[in-house]
Amino acid sequence: RVTSRVRFAPSPTGYLHVGSARTALFNWLHARSVGGTYVLRIEDTDAERNRTDLTDSLLAELDWLGLDWDEGPYFQSERWDRHREVAEDLLERGLAYLCDADNREVGGSALVDGLAVRFRMPVGATMDFDDVVRGKVSFATDDLEDFVIWRSNGSPMFLLANAVDDADMGITHAIRGEDLLSGVPKVLLLLDAIGAPRPTYAHLPLLVNEQRKKLSKRRDDVSIGDYRVRGYLAEAMVNYLALLGWGPPDDVEIRPLAEIVELFRIEDVNKAAAFFDLKKLEHVNATHLRALSKPDFMERVTPWVGADAPWPTDRFDPGRFST
């Protein structure tokens, strides 16, 4: 039996938001529920937008949420030689071609500085796959265009690096957001071209706000770090995120993470959009707060009391919580 291997693969171009945290959690839950391996991979192929401090922040927020990883963090930028090797192989085999700034094909079977590489889309083919959440999905290659796999500046594109790294790392399940669904046929073409097995895909439903619009970093309160510094409990945040697209069979929503691991099945995830409800998050957080023992509560609340903290000392009586 093949052991499940999943990966959470964020890009260090922004702070961890609730959508990515939900993806990280569902990968972690799947791995823990089936005795699999949870891989952390930093997809830092976009050199212009990557920031080291954001990588550090991502790792810190995952640690706060309690989502420990079994392997990694691997950095995609450290694997460019491998990505280059695959791009050159595809060129030599005629499955990809050099192109100039006007997207015109240029002859040659080796990488050239200043020229990009495009993968040649097959004509008249259909790319089919079974998605655990969405069911059977099909794309006609005639509706898709040739796509860039190697930039003219000498770096790999996301799709190439993603496919190669998934193959080399033995990823068996790709659990990720629905917004990445359209890229699957291109990744499958690349995996087929390099002779790698296809992972099982599970595309999680979109998270929407009160207006039922997709959550936006600019418009909505989505930063995990912001919730942490405002005093939300990590166990409450994880509990709530688990309910965004999944629910326990007994409908008891508020429970510890260990119980969620026992109950979680990726096959039970719903494909309907999930409403990120701040009021419900506050309810879940309040319930977890009330469940804390007095010593645990005191340990959690102490950093929030003092001259430079949100609560002044004259508004908090520790004697009420003494054991």
TrEMBL record:
UniProt key word RNA-binding: no
A GO MF label: ATP binding
InterPro entries, alphabetized: Glu/Gln-tRNA-synth, Glu/Gln-tRNA-synth_Ib_cat-dom, GluQ/Sye, GluRS_core, Rossmann-like_a/b/a_fold
Phylogenetic classification of the source organism: unclassified sequences, metagenomes, ecological metagenomes
Family annotation (Pfam families): tRNA-synt_1c
The keyword Aminoacyl-tRNA synthetase is annotated on this UniProt entry: yes
UniProt keywords, alphabetically: Aminoacyl-tRNA synthetase, ATP-binding, Ligase, Nucleotide-binding
Protein name: Glutamyl/glutaminyl-tRNA synthetase class Ib catalytic domain-containing protein
Protein's organism: marine metagenome
GO CC, alphabetical: cytosol
Residues that span the membrane, as ranges: none
SUPFAM superfamilies for this protein: Nucleotidylyl transferase
Biological processes annotated in GO: glutamyl-tRNA aminoacylation
Domain Glutamyl/glutaminyl-tRNA synthetase class Ib catalytic: start-end pairs: 5-103, 116-282
CDD domains: GluRS_core (cd00808)
